[in-house]
Amino acid sequence: MTELMLQEKNGAPPPLEPLIYELSVPGRVGVNLPAPDVPLADLPADLLRSSLELPEVSELDVVRHFTRLSQFNHAIDIGFYPLGSCTMKYNPRLNEDMARLPGFAGIHPLQDPSTVQGALALMYQLQEWLAEISGMKAVSLQPAAGAHGEFAGILMIRAYHLANGEAHRTKIIVPDSAHGTNPATTAMAGLQVVEIPSDANGDVDLDVLRGVCGDDVAGMMITVPNTLGVFEAHIKEIVDIIHGCGGLMYMDGANMNAMLGVAKPADLGFDVMHYNLHKTFSTPHGGGGPGSGPVAANEKLAPYLPGPIVDILEEGDDETPPLYGFVTPEKSIGRLKAFWGNFGMMVRAYAYIALHGAQGLRDVTYHAVLNANYVRAMLKDTYPMPFDRICGHEFVCMGHWKDAEGVHALDISKRLMDYGIHPPTNYFPLIVPEALLIEPTETESKQECDRFIAAMKQIAREAHESPELLHEAPHKAPVKRVDDVRAAKQLVLCCRVLPEGESAE
Ligand SMILES: *Cc1c(COP(=O)(O)O)cnc(C)c1O
Fold it and tell me: Which of 324, 355, 386 is the endpoint of a domain?
C-alpha cells in the first residue's frame, strides 16, 4: 500500500511533497478499449506471464506524472546546454513537423519499395548530401549511432586489409584524447588499440606516432577537431604518416559542427568517417536515443559499406521520376541493423540541410566556432585553460584553482544548475585534470553566451569567497547533490521507493 493511500485511510492530510512514483490504486483505469471487432482467440499460454504488475492510474495521473518529471529535467528548450562533445543545439520545429508527415511516419519497413519511392528519394538525396559535405564517394545510412558508425568503419578497414591479403594488420592507433567509443569500437572489432599521447599543445605527438607505425597498423581513428576542442595542426602529416605505412584513416565526425562547408574530411585525406546526425543535423538527443551515425567512405572503401543503401535502379526523364531501390555494395561488410536505419532521423537531417542550404551550413560552423571562441576568450582570465589557442566549436578549461583547493570541476557544474544552466561535460577529455568541456553551439545568442559567462565568473568568485555554496549545490534543483559513490555501490534499478535496508532484487 502506498503512503498516500495509508494517509487517506487514516484521514490524515495529504503530504505536502507530491509523491512521485507510487500512484497506483487498485481498480483505477486510464483507458477505455472499444469492444473487439475480431473473434476472440486464446493466446499461447506458454508465452504469457502469470502476473504483470502494471500501475493502475487514471489518464490525469499519467499526464501529471510525466509533466512533473519533465519539469525536473533540463532541456535545450529551457536553457543554455553547453555539454561539450554532444552538440546540444536547438532542434528546429520544422524537423518535427516533417518527421510526422503521415507519408513518412506511417510507412512500414516491410512495404514494397515501389510504394515508398518518396522515402527512398529522401534517403538517396541525404546520402548524396552527406557525401558532398564530406567529399566522400558514398554513404550508408544504416548505423544507429556514432559508435555504430565507428564500428562499421573499423570493420570496413579490416575487410579491406583482409581482401588485400594483409591479415597481419591488426592495430588501430588512437590518440589519448579520443572519445571512449573509439578504443571500445576497436576492441569490439577484434583489433588492438595502440594509444598515443598528445603533446603540450593538445596535438598528436608526431614522434611517437612515427615510432608505432609499421606493417601491423590497420589504421588510425582520430576526431577532427579533436576532443580538446583544437584543430589538429599537423593533420596532413598524420594522414601521410599512416598512409605511408599502409594504414587507413578513420575520422570520428562527431565534431562536424566545426567543419561544415569549410573543410571536407576526404580533402584532408581521410578514407572513412561517420556523422552523428543527432548532433550536427539536429535530432533531439538528450534522453539517450535514438541516434543515427551514417558512415561515408572514399573510392577505396565505398565497396565495403554496410548495406543495403539506396540507389537509382532506373534513370527517370521529364515524364517519369527515377526508380529508387535498395542495393548492397559489392564487398559490403553486411547488414548492421534491422531494416533501413533510423528513418525519422534521416527526415530531420534532410529537413535541416534543405532548410540551411550550402551557405547556411557554412554559417552554422562559423557561428558555432565564433561562439566557442567568444566564451573562451571571455573566461580565459578567470578559469585556467590548458591550451591557450583558437578553438573549434568547443574548448576545455579547468574547474580548479590553486588558491581554492577544495573546489573541483564537479562543484562548479552543480552550482551552474542553480543558475538554470546545464553543466558542461565534466572530467572529459580524460587527459585534462578537472576538465570542463564547453560547447555553446551556434544557436545561442550573444546575450545567452553573456549570461553563461556572467554565471561562470560569479561561480569563480563564490569558489574563492564562499566555497560551501558550491559544495552543497545544487540548491534549487528538485534533486539535491547526489551521493555518487553510494549510487554506484547500491545500484537501484527500479522506480519503487524501497524501505531502508531492502535491496532492489
Ligand atoms: C558523441 C560522440 C561519439 C559517439 O556517438 P554516439 O552517437 O553517442 O554513439 C563518438 N565520438 C565523439 C567525439 C563524440 O562526441
Answer: 355
Arithmetic mean of pLDDT, 304-312: 97
Does residue 73 belong to any structural domain of this protein?
no
327 and 401 share a domain?
A: no
Q: Where are the beta strands (DSSP E) in 399-481?
A: 425-426, 435-438
Is the shortest distance between the CB of 146 and ligand 1 below 6 Å? yes
Compute the Cα dihedral for 445, 254, 423, 393 and give only its sign. negative
- If one residue of 83, 179, 221 were mutated to test the ligand 1 pocket, choosing by the most ligand atoms within 8 A of its CB, it would be 179
Q: Which range (44-53, 114-123, 300-309) has the least confidence?
A: 44-53
Predicted local confidence at residue 71, as pLDDT: 83
Structural domain includes residue 5? no
Place of cell 503512503: 3
User: Are residues 326 and 452 located together in one domain of the fold?
Assistant: no
Judgement on whether residues 336 and 208 belong to the same structural domain of the protein: yes
CA 486, 427, 458: angle at the middle one, nearest 5? 95
Is the minimum distance from the CB of 254 to ligand 1 under 6 angstroms? yes
Q: Is the CB of 227 under 6 A from ligand 1?
A: yes
Give domain status of residue 16, yes or no: no
Picking from 297, 325, 355, the residue at the C-terminal end of a domain is: 355
Instruction: Kindly list the distances between the CA atom of residue 100 and the CA atoms of 94, 106, 120, 294, 344, in Å, as whole numbers in the listed order.
Output: 10, 8, 16, 21, 8
Per the structure, the count of domains in the chain is 2
Could you tell me if the CB of 156 is within 6 A of ligand 1? no
Residues 347 and 385 in one domain: no
Residue 84 CB less than 6 A away from ligand 1: no
Query: CATH number for the domain including 416?
Result: 3.90.1150.10
Q: Is the CB of 181 under 6 A from ligand 1?
A: yes
Give the pTM.
Answer: 0.90
Q: Does any domain span residue 319?
A: yes
> Which residue segment(s) compose the domain that 479 sits in?
362-487
149 Cα to the center of ligand 1, angstroms: 10
Between strands 425-426 and 217-223, the pairing is unpaired
Position in ligand 1 atom list of the atom nearest CA 278? 7
Q: Which of 30-39, 268-277, 395-404, 441-450 has the lowest mean pLDDT?
A: 30-39
- Ligand 1 touching residue 149 (CB < 6 A): no
Residue nearest to atom 3 of ligand 1 (CA): 146
367 and 344 assigned to the same domain: no
Residue 77 CA, ligand 1 centroid: distance in Å? 22
Residue whose C-alpha is closest to residue 467's, from 418, 414, 404, 423: 404
The minimum-distance atom of ligand 1 relative to the CA of 223 is 13
Question: Which ligand 1 atom is nearest residue 227's CA?
Answer: 13
* Amino acid identity, position 369: V
